[in-house]
Structure formats: C-alpha cells, structure tokens
Amino acid sequence: MLIALVLLALASAPLGLLARREPRPLIGWLLALIPLALFAGLCSQLPTVLAGGRVDAALPWVPAMGLELRFALDGLSMLFALIITGIGVLILGYAGFYMDKDPGLGRFLATLILFMGAMLGLVLAGNVLTMFVFWELTSVTSYLLIGYKHDYPEARRGAQQSLLITGGGGLALLVGLLILGQAAQQAGVPATEAYRFDAIIGAGEAIRQSPLYAPAVWLVFLGCFTKSAQLPFHFWLPGAMQAPTPASAFLHSATMVKAGVYLLARLAPGLGGTALWHTTLILVGGATFVFGAIVACRQFDIKALLAYTTLSMLGGLVLLIGLGGDYGAEALAVNILAHALYKSALFMVAGIIDHEAGTRDLKRLGGMRAYMPITMVVAALALLSQMAIPVELGFVAKEWMLEAALESPQPAPLRFLGLAAILTAAVAYIVAGWRLFRNVFLGQPHPDVLQHHVEEPKFGMLVAPALPALLSLVLPVGFLPLVSQFLSPAAGAVLGEPLRFELYLYHGVTPALLLSLSAIVVGGLLATRERQIAALPGAPAWFNGGLLFDRLIDGMLAFATSLTRRTQVGRMRAYMLYSVLAFLGLVGLPFLLFGLGAVRVGADSDLHFYEIIATGLIPVGILATITARSRLGAIIAVGVVGAMVSLFFVLFSAPDLALTQLLIEVLSTVFLLLVFSVLPARFESLSPSWVRWRDAGIAIVFGALMTGLVLATATSELFPPLAPYFLANSLAEGKGANVVNVILVDFRGFDTMGEITVLFIAVLGIFGLLRFRRQVPIAVRRSQHAVIPGAPVGGAEAATPEEEPVKG
Amino acid sequence: MANHLFIPLVSPLLGATLAVIFGRQRLVARAMVLASVLCNLGYSLWLLWLVGTQGRQVSQGGGWIAPFGISMVADGLGAIMLCVASVLMLATVAYSFFTLDPAYERYFYYPLLLLLLLGVSGAFLTGDIFNLYVWFEVLLMASFGLITLGGTRGQLEGGLKYMVLNLVGSTAFLIACGLLYGVVGTLNMAHIAERMASVREPGILTAVACMFLFAYGSKAAIVPLYFWLPTSYHTPPVAVTAIFSGLLTKVGAYSLYRVFGTVMQNELQHLAPLLLLIAGLTMVIGVLGAMAQMNVRRILSFHIVSQIGYTIMGLGLASAAGLAAGLLFTAHVMIVKAALFFIGGAAEQIYGTAEIKPMGGLARREPALAIFWFLGILSLAGIPPLSGFFGKLALLQVGVGQGAYLISAVAAGTSILTFFSMLKIWNEVFWKKAYADMSKLPRVGPGLLLPGAALVVVSLVAGLAASTLVDYSTLAGTQLFDQAGYIGAVCGADGCEAVYESALR
User: Is A775 helix (H, G, I), strand (E, B) or coil?
Assistant: First the structure.
C-alpha cells in the first residue's frame, strides 16, 4: 500500500506535462486528482494509525548495503503525509490558474508532482537510507523549481545556493546516518537492520553512550539545520523565493523545509535526552525563531516577509523539540498543522495579489479591500491564525508552545530562554502580520496599482487559499476533539511512548493564557508603529548570510584558480620536474627507510679491466653530452654511451641484444642528425644558472637512487630466479639452443606479439600524424584565442583564468 | 584451460587489421569494426556470467605451465572492467560514426580505436606483470595515435606532453619490473604473490612496490602525477576524449587494484595510510582544478582526476569490502564520465566551442540533451537513484565502518564541490539565456544524443538494479583480495612454488 502510494506519486510526474496544453487551469485541477487519490489512500489507513498502530511495507533494494525501500506509517508520518498530499491538491489546482499564461507549466507541474512523491517518500520512510534517497530527491526537485525562471541570474543564484546548502548538509547527514548505523551495529543490531529507524531508536540508549554519538548527532544536526533553514544556514530560504509562488507555498513553507524538523522529531526518542541535544536545539531553534520574526517585520516584499516568518516558525518547531517533554511533543504536532494551514494560504494569497496587482511590493500596494474583498477575508483569516489571535488554530498552537516552555523538563536558564524566544516571536508576528495586512488591503491604492485591472481572482484560484484559511478557524471552533485525536499519535511518536491529549480553547486562567494575551496586547501596541519599526536602522549590509556565502564561494574559486594556475603551468619542464620529485619522494623515501639494508657492495673477483673501462666511459659520455656546446658534439657523446651499452651486451654474451642496440643507436643518430640539420648548430643557454644547478642536483640524487635500487635488488638472494628452467628446457621443449631467442618467441612469445603490435600501431599513428591535418574552422580558432587571454598562442595548456566568478 | 580468454584479444586485432586492409571500402571497414566491438561486448557479458557462476578462468599462453609462461586470468574485476570497456567502445564507435570527419577514417581512426581496446583488454586479463607492461605499451601507442590524429597545433602540443609524461610512468613500470624480478625472480603474478607473501616486514620490496605505485599512479593520474591529463584531454575530437576518460586512467587504477589488491597484499597494508593520503589529495586538488575551469571538457577532465581519488580510496581502505566499493565506484564513473563527454560534446558541436561563457540557452533549445545532462551530473554527484549514489554510499559505508572518518569526510565534501562545478556548466550552458540568436545554430541529431543518453540510461538502470551490481562487485572484491584462491587458480592447489620446485628437479 505505502510503496504503491509513493511509487504512484513518482510515476505520475510525467502526467504534469499534460499542462503544456490549454486549458491549463482545468488541467491543473485535473492533475490535483493525483494527490487527492493519495490523500484518500492515506486516510484509509487512519483507523489503524489512530489506534496507535503502524503500517509497514518494505521492498528490498540493495540488501548488502542495508538499503531498502522501507516505509512505515505512524502518527507523525500520517500528519506530514496528509499535509503534503492535502496541500498538494490545492497547490496543483492553484498553479493551473496562477501560471495559466506560462508555456512552461507542464515542466513545472511535472517537477512539482515529482517533488511531492519524493517528499511523501521522505516522511513515510522507515529506514534512514530510504529517507536519505528521498531527502536528496527533494533537494534536487527544489533546485529545479527555484530555478524555474532560469533566464534570470537571481533565480539561478537562489537555486544554486539552496542546492549547495541543502546538498552539503545532505552529505553531512549521510555520513551522520552511516555513523548512527555503525553505532547501532556496535550496540548489537544486525547489519541488515542497522539502518531502520526503529532499530536506531531502539538502540538509542546504547548509542547515546557510544563515542560515536556526538559526531553522529552533529552531522545529523548539520543536515537538518541546513534543510530547515536554521541559523546560520537560513539565507537560502529567502533566496528560494525566486521560485514561482505555488512552489514557494508548497516546498518552502509547508513541506520540504519541514523535513529537517521531521527528522529531528523522528529521531528524538532515540537520540534526545542528552544535554548536547536539548541545548543545541533550544539555542539554534530559539535564535532562528526570534531572528526570522524580527527580520520579517522589516520586509517590503510580501514573499520575503512570509519567507522570514516561515524560517522563524521552523526555528520555533526546532525549539519545541529541544524543549521536549509531553507538552513539547504536543505543541510540535499542533504547530506543524497550524503553520502548514495558515502559511500555505498566505503564500497563495501573496500569489493572487502578485497575479492581480502585478507587484508584491508593500510600498506599491494598498487599498485592495475595495477590489478584492473576499481575498482580504481569506488573508485575514490566515493572518489571524499566524498572529495567534484567539479562537484561531494558531492561538491554540501558541498557547501549547508556551505551556511547553513552562513545563519543559530542561534546566531553568534554557527553559526561560525558550520562553523569551516564544514571547518575542509572538509579538513580532503580530507586527509583521499587521504590516502585511494594512499595507496591502487598507489605506489608499498606490497609483501603480490603479493602472492594473485589479479584480477578485477566479473561483478556482481563490478556493485554494480559502480552504486552509477557513480550516484555521473552523478546526479550533468545531473540531478540537477530532484534531486532538488525530494529533495524539503524532505527538506520541515524537515522545517515544503512547500519548493522549486534549486541546482546548479556554481552560481557565493559566499562566500560558496570560502570557499569550499580554503578547497580543504588546504586539498590538507595537503594530501601530510598524512604519517606524521598519525604518529603524538594521544590521550592517555585510551581515547577510547570502552575501557571505557568495563570498565564501568566490574565495574558494579564487583559491582553486590560483592553485591550478600555479601547478598546471603548461610547461613540460615543470611537469617533468614534478614527476621526478614525486619519484624521489614516493620511491626514494621508502628506499631510504626500508631498503638501504639490502644494498650490498663488495669487490667482484671476476671483474675485468675492460669492463671497468666500458663502465667508466658511460658517465664520461653523459657528462660530455650535457656540457657539449654544439649539437654535433652532443650527438657523438650520446653515441659513446650507446656503444658502451652495446659492448656490455657483448661482454655478457648476448650478441643479439648487442646487435639490436647498435642498430637502434645508429638509427637514432641518423634521426637526430636529420632533425638537428634544421636547428642552429650550437646550443644556447636559456636557464639561469641556479636552475641548472638545481636540476643537476636533482639528477644526481635521482641517479644515486636508481643505483641504490639496482644494487639492492640485483644482489638479492631472497628467492631463486626462474632462469634455470629456461636453460634446461630451451632445447628440449623449445627446440632452440639460443635461450634468449626461445624465450622471446616461445616461452614469452605472447609478449613479443604484443610488441610487434606496438610497432604496427606506431606505423598507423605516424602515418596519420604525417599525412592528416584537420582543418580547424576559423571561427573556433578565433574564439579560442579570445577566450584564453594570456595563453601562449595556440597553446594547448594554461589553466583558463576566471574572468569573473560564476554567476547565479 | 579457458582458452577463450584470448577471444577479446584476437577479435580487435583481427578487426583492426581487416579495417586497415579494407580501408578504402568504408562500409566494409565499419562493419568489421562494429563486429569486433560487438564480439567483445558479447564475450565479456558471457565472461561476467561465467566468472560469476564458476569462479576464475585461467589459460596459459603457449601451453607453458604456470610460473614459466604467460598466464591469462579472468576474475570478477577483470570481467567487469572488460565489459564496461566494451560498452564504452561501442558507444564511442557509434558516436564517431555520426560525428567524425570522414578524413579520420582514411587515417586509421577506427583501427586505432580497436587497438586501444586490444591493449585495454589485454591489461585486464593478463596474469603476468611484464605482459601487463606490454599491454600498457599497446594502449599508450594507440592512444598517442588517437590524440594526435588531426594534427592541430593544440593536439600536437597536448599529445607531446601526454606522451612524454606517460613515458616517464612507463619507464618506471619497466624498471620496477626489472627490480622486482631481481628480488623475487619471477614475473608471474601468482608466483610473485606467493613469494612476496612470505616477506612480512617492510624492506626493499616496499621501495619496489612504491615504484609500481608511481608507475600506475602516473597512468591513473593521481596527485602529484596527473598533469598530463588536463593538458591533453581537451584537444582531440570529443569521441576520443570520451573513450580516454573511460579507459586510460582506469587501466592504471585497475593495475593498482590488481598489483596491490592481489599480488602485494603485505605492501598494501604498509602503504594504506599513504594511499589514503594520496586519495584525499587527488579528490580535492582535482575538484579544485575543475572549479577553476571555464571549459566543458577541461572541467570534466579535472573531474577524472578527482574521481580517481575515490578509486584510490577504495584501495587504501585495504580490505575486500573497500576494493569492492572502489570497483563499484570506478565502473560507475567510467560510464557516466564518458556519457558526460558525449553530451557535452554535442553542446560543443552546436556552439563550435567548449568554452562555457559564450554558450547558453540549451535547456530550451535542446530539452532532451538538457535532461540527460542533468541526470548525468546527478549521477556524477552521487544523487540517488542513479548509479553514482551507490558507489559513493559503498565507499562511505566501508570508510565509516573501518573508522576512516577523515577520508570519508573528504570524500563527502568533495562530492558537493563536484556538484557545484558541474552546476556551473548547467547554469552557463543550459540555463543561462543565450547571448546570440539561437535559431541559426545547428540542431542536435539523434546520432549525437543517443550514445550519451544510452550511457545515462545505463547509469539509471544500474542504480535501480543496484543489488545485482553490488553483489557482483562484492564478489569481485572478495576474489581480488583472495590471494590464495588466485594462486591456486593459476598454479594449482599446491601453489607456484611447488610447481617451480618439481619442474627444476
């Protein structure tokens, strides 16, 4: 069932392409049947889940790695899955209207449905690796959606930032999850099951004791904080507002950004309970909560304002996980639901305003109540919920949040920090909400807006935000027991034990209620001064995560460029030098460390004087080659070296080898003469003398190393060689008296065939090289020169410098 | 005796010769080439199955008993590499049919490709260390012919650096063979393995092993021996770069796996920390190089270096699981990297340049190309469910399992940088608005798109059916690390030393 649900969602993504044709608005709502079917499918499992049960399903994928498609549906997964599919229905229908003139709608919806499948897989996963697979998929689809308007550099930049941040966090998460699996295995869980959520949670006690706990938790935190836009990784979320509004409403408020919260909540029963866990979550969550709320009060773009309240709320949810306890778990569940409802509605309203009035700028709107009264009501319903005004769901949620802080089992300073964060954010939410409402709907319309033909949106568009906005009001007024019943198993999953709680609107005068009401009063007072608050001096301009991140990237690029330019210099001499130095390091050091003992030097009793002369002439020849001033002299000196080597073969009774060597010597001399005939007769000294001395030193060390190696190996008596076998069997089995010949053509004839092939290839290659000249189109030649400034003309090399850092 | 092991050598050699002879009749020559590549592909698939069900396959060249002649051995590693090589060669030949100037055909382009395949196949199958050198020469010569064919100035300059720096590696290989023979007294890998197994303490053999590391490392383009690669890979036609990226460095990597994984296991244990250091440096420096580039092919070339780091990481983990993971990653990257070269090459054909700044707008103009490119970079960056994820996951799993946290962290960090630098191409070439009027630019035909697209599909299917692949690579890693089994398969149950002693008696 679960597998079918997820796969159905993924597989139906191509259907989105249907929206390439008209009538787009209709097709949007038609496609909304997909999430509707999923929603219905999930609802059919509600009885089991509400009874505290769990639905499991698994499909093996790579058992050897512990990777499987394992899904498990419990209260927490159900809450998220219903939000995903439910809001998915509205978003798909809404998008059809919102983008009815956009020819790319098909591609957009296909990606959106793909995302929905991935998100569904993420929250239903019963195995951390399964979850990770979908986690990455959501990052990628989010990238594509943010960059949907990829003609604009800002869209590309936002998309890239979000992917780098969430992708980088994802990698940290992967390593963290693998370490968790490792810790679970050390706690006695069999390897094939070590990556299951319930196994990790079950082994939680042992994992918390393990030295692997701290690194694993930090890495998981990195993954969750990046995904859920916590400080200091928050900045990608405002950047993600480049996405078309339906995507923002769906991914960047209701679903994907909550993935980090989901994972933290999911793992809380196993990994929570330590000081590390609660302190970090309270501090990071609380800071994000306050930061986002305050920054939101100062935004002028409606979507940016909503984005900051979203990241603020994500901080609030993280804070709740940090606060822990019964109330923490309950408040988490309520707030997730409340936020998903009002925030998706608000984003869709923002899209409607943009769609109808042609702008989202608060400075250029106003007086919309006259033109779109219904939209105003919808917006007001959602905003009131966000501002936690009584009888809205947001009010209930806020009160539970305050209870969570008051009743938190954490030590006093942390608890009060959490409480302070909640109150500050509550006040700021009211200011931000009022600011949005007043500047859009009240006052006098801006002249720019009047030029547009502003009217109430079509019903098919308006119904999408209206539904969740209405629910924000209707649920707390009429259905609180049902909501409590629905949310109880979710809270139970976060707590790790079954739980039953009842939400209420009024339960006598409690501290939480008083705090909540006083926050509303203070917020209301401040809201009247919202203009002045927005005009207050803000943080300095450089204090902007996005800019700092860009600078980090630029710095990394500059470092990479200079490193590459310094190493990849394009001169063969330099490369040869690196190679030789690498050889000295890689082979010389081990030789000095381990091999010196094997070197044995002793007088050879069979040594003849002509052998000494032949040997002595070789270095003389080499020295003469190096010091020769004329090319002819150098050729002659090289010839001496070759001749002496041939002589060696003669002395050690290998006439065929000597003959071959001589032949080669003669040939190469001829070739050298031919080539040198077109070059100046005398050498010119181009390198400074210190370079020559350096090279001489390196060459001598290299020669000494080779000598040492040969001495050490040639005198080795560790193992007897194969030679006696060849001597014995050459005539008998190989039918030849010349052992070298028999080795070449029989014992190792296969080698010889290969070498002959090498000659064959050389002939083919040289023929082509000499005869074939590809014509390079002139345009290409010119462009090469134009693009690589400073490169040697026609240069194959030279690391291309970056004229400017990557855009977007 | 599995004499069929010579088929993948005979077939390209014969094909190349016939293609040279029938060089004038284009269609006949093409048919010969295609037949030979298909023969290798079919054979390697069969070999995969055979090795998977019946274990190692061994044949003795010239019928000489094991440590004295030249042995041919196919195990899981060899079979996988052979198979991937044939697949890539098929894609390259197909791509060349559609893209290459007919003049190339007159100057023996296809025979050279087949001879490259010959060298690669020989290297994957031989059980003799000097014979391995011979195959290295074959493929070096063929690759040199291919890289300079066309004779533009850039090609000659890049080709020269390629040749000289590779000859340094080859020379080191040859000298190392000599030194090894001086100490161990044999060239048969199984026999070397048996003899070296008795030397537990680091000694002169460690220095010799390091020389092999230098030699193969310079072929595989590890840091600090990778300079030849980015210097030369962007100069020849795209098809050549693609097949080079898939095969050349991987033969060096294969040799490292073979020699250190099977033959010199004691030395592998000694050198493991060094290998991990090299792996980390190679990953990071390679990817930094890629980030600094603004040319599709140069970016991809630097990525080859970076990804060799992952392969070396698998070796440096020094266990059967590590080798299996590294092998999985390597097989994946061979396919995907070639695919990206093909697709990038198609974009290059449209604009007539591989520089990314002047390009743009291809996402709208060529949506199919864009989709496959995007899938390709997802695979390269290791995003599920494409094959790259499994290679990365396997390496990280083994790394974390063995407590090698540092290299695992570096590997994970490198993969986001990989993604970043590939996104640069995506942003500039596909997403950015085109500067110029695009309507006059040529369209991408199916011949240009299909080879790369097919390889991307292979990567996708490999990811979805990863279980089979993981099981096979685990088998291959286990086989590779099973020294006793290797010796037994080549020399018989009593080992090579017993054969040696009885033959001399």
Answer: coil
All residues of chain B having their beta carbon less than 8 Å from the beta carbon of residue A211 are: none
Whether residue A287 lies inside any domain: the answer is yes
Number of domains in chain A: 2
Domain annotation covers residue A267 = no
Which of A684, A708, A740 lies at the terminal end of a domain, its last residue? A684
Residue A136: its chain B contacts at CB < 8 A?
Answer: 383-384, 389
Domain that includes residue B269, residue range: 3-504
- Of residues B155, B214, B423, nearest to A586 (C-beta): B214
The β-bridge partners of A196 are: A127
Using one digit for the tens of pLDDT, what is the confidence trace for A166-190?
999 999 999 999 999 999 999 888 8
Q: Supply the pTM of this predicted model.
A: 0.92
Based on the structure, what is the number of domains in chain B?
1
Shared domain check, A335 and A469: yes
- Summarised one tens digit per residue, pLDDT across range B51-105 is 999 999 999 988 888 889 999 999 999 999 999 999 999 999 999 998 888 888 8
* Residue A674 is assigned to a structural domain of this protein: yes
Which of B68, B111, B383 has its CB closest to that of A136? B383
Q: Please give the ipTM for the structure prediction.
A: 0.94
Interface test mutation site (partner B, options A182, A586, A725, A793, max chain B beta carbons within 10 A): A586
Domain edge (last residue) among A477, A505, A538: A538
Average pLDDT value for chain B: 92
Are A382 and A531 found together in one domain? yes
| DSSP reduced 3-state for A735 | coil
8 Å CB contact between A382 and A394: no
Q: Is residue A717 part of a domain?
A: no
Residue of B nearest to A595 (CA): B204
Q: From CA B121, how far away is CA B142, in angstroms rounded?
A: 13
Quote the domain boundaries for residue A618. 610-684
CB contact under 8 A, B353 and A746: no
Specify the pLDDT at position B477. 95
Please check whether residue B231 touches A, CB under 8 A: yes
* CA nearest neighbour of A277 among A244, A310, A318: A318
User: Is residue A186 within 8 Å of residue A145, measured between CB atoms?
Assistant: no
Whether A501 and A640 map to the same domain: the answer is: no
Low-confidence ranges of chain A (pLDDT < 50): 778-808
Whether B122 sits inside 8 A of A765 (CB atoms) is no
The reply to whether A778 touches chain B by the CB within 8 Å rule is no
Give which of B137, B43, B55 is closest to B83, Cα–Cα. B43
Do A769 and B145 make contact, defined as CB atoms within 8 angstroms?
yes
- Residue A17, chain B, CB below 8 Å: the answer is no
Closest CA to B308 of B281, B339, B269: B281
Distance CA A145, CA B281 (A): 35
Q: How far, in Å, CA of B300 to CA of A364, rounded?
A: 48
d(CA B27, CA A147): 47
Any A CB within 8 A of B232 CB? yes
| Chain B residues with beta carbon closer than 8 angstroms to that of A598 | 203-204
User: How many CB atoms within 10 Å of residue A373?
Assistant: 12
Three-state secondary-structure class, residue A522: helix
* B291:A164 CB<8 A: no
Q: Please indicate, yes or no, whether residues A445 and A307 belong to a single structural domain of this protein.
A: yes
Residues A375 and A501 in one domain: yes
* Chain A residues with beta carbon closer than 8 angstroms to that of B179: 709-710, 713
- Report how far residue A666's alpha carbon sits from residue A653's, in angstroms, rounded to the nearest whole number: 21
Cα four-point dihedral sign A17, A23, A24, A27:
negative
Answer yes or no: do A616 and A532 share one domain.
no
Which B positions 24-53 lie with beta carbon below 8 A of chain A? none
A234-273 in b/e form (b: 16+ CB < 10 A) is bbbbbbbbbbbbbbbbbbbbbbbbbbbbbbbbbbbbbbbb
